[in-house]
Every structure is written in structure tokens, then in C-alpha cells.
Amino acid sequence: MEALFDTPRLAPTGADITAAGPHGHRRPRILIAQDGFAGKRRAIQRLRQEGYEVELATSGIEVMNAVRDRDFDLVLMDVELPDLNGVIAARTIRTNWKEHAPHIVGRSRSPFPEDYQTLKEEGEMDACVSSKLSDQELLALIADCLAQNTRVA
């Protein structure tokens, strides 16, 4: 098995930073972290239509390895991931990559709106929203997060 987050990736150097932005690539890169099949293809297609580069992880371990190995601008994190839930994965990303961590938007199937604030705080996420959020609302939230130089309060 591949080692899990041995060392954090380094921040981009001056040579890596282009006019495209601090992450050194032209289109923002999003990691969708979701285990179930429902909606993944549609979400990937929709985000690509909006000009984002999109990758997929289906477990918490895959999320950690992807963030360790590649530079993402945002992780769209299902909080109910198998083997390492999204809250723990988000907190671990914040701990290991600190200010170089990608934005993290948690998604939950919880029917209780008060759960979202708790999950956001526990996972140190930029936001946590319902997995039933409309495409337009989710795209607006992603754009807001990416427009920030630091995590959303």
C-alpha cells in the first residue's frame, strides 16, 4: 500500500506561479471526494463545462493521497466517506498543509441544517452544505471560495 501523506507538498515557488494564479495552472483544479455513484458524472461534467479541471476520489485515503501528490484549489468533500470520513480528512489536510491547503467545501446528506455548522467547524472547512444544493448555488459557493486568498470564515 502506498504511504499515506508522508510529507506535505511544498508551496509553489516563484517559478511555479504564473499569470494564471498561485497554483501554477490555468484552470482551477477541483477534487470531488464522493464514494457513491449518484451524481458524480453529472457533477464532473458540469464543473468541466464551467472550466474547472476535475479529479475524483472515492475514499478518505484517496483524498489524502491526491492532495499529497497534486495541487488542488478546492476539495468538494462528502463528509460520509469510507475508511476516513470527510471531517477527519479535512482536518488532517488543514493540519498537514496549513496555509497551503486547498479550500474545502463539505457536503452532507444530513436533513438538519444545524449539522452543517458543526461539521464545518469540526473539519475546519470553508463551508459545509447540503448535498442537495442546486448546481447554481454550488457553483456560486465554489466561485466565492476560489476568489478568496484565504479560507472563507
Characterise the protein shown here.
- The protein has 153 residues and is of the alpha/beta class.
- It has one domain (25-147): Rossmann fold.
- The protein contains 5 helices and 5 strands, in the order E-H-E-H-E-H-E-H-E-H.
- The protein has helices at 40-49, 60-69, 86-97, 113-123, 135-147; strands spanning 29-33, 53-57, 74-78, 103-108, 127-130.
- The chain has a 5-stranded parallel beta sheet, sandwiched between helices.
- Helix 4 links the parallel strand 4 and strand 5 (127-130).
- The modification 4-aspartylphosphate is found at residue 78.
- This is Response regulator.
- InterPro entries: CheY-like_superfamily, Sig_transdc_resp-reg_receiver.
Short key terms for the protein model shown above:
alpha/beta, 5-stranded parallel sheet, single chain, Rossmann fold, globular, 153 residues
Which helices and strands, and how do they pair?
Blueprint: E1 29-33, H1 40-49, E2 53-57, H2 60-69, E3 74-78, H3 86-97, E4 103-108, H4 113-123, E5 127-130, H5 135-147
Parallel strand pairs: 1-2, 1-3, 3-4, 4-5
What is the CATH class name? Alpha Beta
CATH topology name: Rossmann fold
Mean pLDDT: 82
CATH architecture: 3-Layer(aba) Sandwich
Show unreliable segments.
Answer: 1-23
CATH homology group: Response regulator
Q: Roughly what fraction of the amino acids lie in strands?
A: 15-25%
Shape: globular
The tally of helices reads 5
Structural class: alpha/beta
Distance between the termini: 36 Å
**How many domains, in number, for the residues?**
1
Helices and strands, in N-to-C order? Answer: EHEHEHEHEH
Task: Assign a percent range to the helix content.
Answer: 25-40%
Note the main sheet. 5 strands, parallel
Cα radius of gyration in angstroms: 15 Å
**Widest sheet: strand order?**
2-1-3-4-5
Total strands: 5
